[in-house]
């Protein structure tokens, strides 16, 4: 008569080990979820806190109100073109976006005359219709000027023309380079308000 195979009884120690392994599995699964999630959160936080470069137009006599901002890149050129009120000829300032302001590259004029920028022979060349004065890449913290319809002022960076038509005549404009965080920039373009300017840029001018 065949004997039935004997069932091996598990010791209390092996049962406890199996139970312990079953308890550890959910903990390991939880860690596999939490650790990547925390890492991703920290990476996104670090990203949105990174500064970006923006070209801004502010009104210092109106509590430094931000009226225009364009994302820019270091080395990108800015063109400020206006018609001279006396000579009625065009003048164009050429600037370059830098980390701490704007580099003054050149001043272009259609002619020389009363009230127009000085031309030094050693720094002036003729380029088509323009007399071009090399300004030597002087670093400017910002550009300030009063807006007048007589001057027909135009401001262009890259291929984008900044609209100045909505501003009232006689407004004092400050064009500068600012470095808000990516989070502040995204908030601004989403329509939730501008960021606070850094340093002395938020001082009012009287």
Automatic annotation (TrEMBL):
Keywords: Membrane, Transmembrane, Transmembrane helix. This is DUF1850 domain-containing protein. The chain crosses the membrane at residues 28-49. It comes from Dethiosulfatarculus sandiegensis. Residues 1-20 are annotated as: Disordered.
């Amino acid at each position: 008569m065949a004997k039935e195979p004997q069932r091996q009884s598990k010791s209390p120690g092996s049962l406890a080990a199996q139970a312990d392994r079953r308890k550890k599995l959910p903990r390991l699964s939880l860690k596999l979820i939490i650790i990547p999630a925390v890492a991703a959160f920290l990476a996104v936080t670090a990203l949105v806190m990174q500064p970006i470069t923006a070209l801004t137009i502010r009104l210092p006599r109106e509590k430094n109100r931000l009226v225009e901002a364009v994302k820019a890149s270091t080395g990108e050129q800015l063109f400020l073109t206006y018609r001279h009120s006396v000579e009625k000829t065009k003048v164009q300032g050429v600037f370059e976006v830098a980390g701490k302001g704007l580099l003054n590259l050149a001043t272009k004029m259609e002619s020389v005359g009363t009230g127009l920028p000085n031309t030094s022979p050693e720094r002036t060349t003729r380029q088509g219709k323009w007399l071009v004065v090399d300004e030597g890449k002087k670093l400017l913290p910002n550009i300030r000027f009063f807006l007048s319809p007589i001057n027909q002022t135009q401001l262009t960076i890259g291929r984008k023309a900044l609209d100045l038509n909505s501003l009232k005549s006689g407004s004092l404009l400050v064009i500068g380079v600012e470095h808000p965080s990516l989070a502040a920039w995204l908030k601004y373009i989403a329509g939730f308000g501008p960021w606070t300017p850094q340093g002395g840029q938020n001082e009012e001018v009287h």
